Each structure stands twice: as C-alpha cells, then as structure tokens.
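Annex B.
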Amino acid sequence: LHYDFFVIHSAKDAEWVNYTLLSKLEGEHCLKGCIADRDFQLGELVLNNITESIKQSAKVLIILTPNLVQSRWCEYEMKTAFHVSVEMGTKSVIPVLL
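TIR domain-containing protein: predicted structure tokens.
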C-alpha cells in the first residue's frame, strides 16, 4: 500500500485537516496520508483518483462535520470507501467527529 491513510473531508474543513490533522499524523507520527488537493494525479479523472487512492490506503479517515454532509464529492468518497472496504476485506473506515 502506498498510503497509511486517506482523508475524506469537506473543502470547508481543509484548514483543520492540513494544519492540525496532517501535522499531527504526518509530522509527529511519521505516517503517510493522502488528501485530494495534494496527492491526486494531475490529468487523471477525479473519480479514478478517489478509487485508486482509497485502494492504496491502509485506513480511511472520514472527518465528520456539518460541512461533510453538504458535499456530493464527500458522499461519493464515503460510498467508495465503504465499497472498497467490503470488496477488498482489508480496509478500516474510521470516523473522526469534530
């Protein structure tokens, strides 16, 4: 696997994800995370990026905020994460309540 975790979050929560969550997990704990804005391959379809990034991640973190439920992209990412989890039988989806 290429990543320790993939983060599903609303764009409105990106500041917290980038400056709090990632600094803690990547900086202090030396884990390798995947977030769309930074790690998706340019020129690749977004849907393919989502699916492949989730498949290449050991865990999927879902940042639960009111903003999350308003995003169709987040809805797609969550559905994909659960589908991949069942399909591969190896994923762990972890909710993070803010």
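The chain has one domain: 3-97. The first helix runs from residue 14 to 28. Further annotation is deferred to the next reporting cycle.
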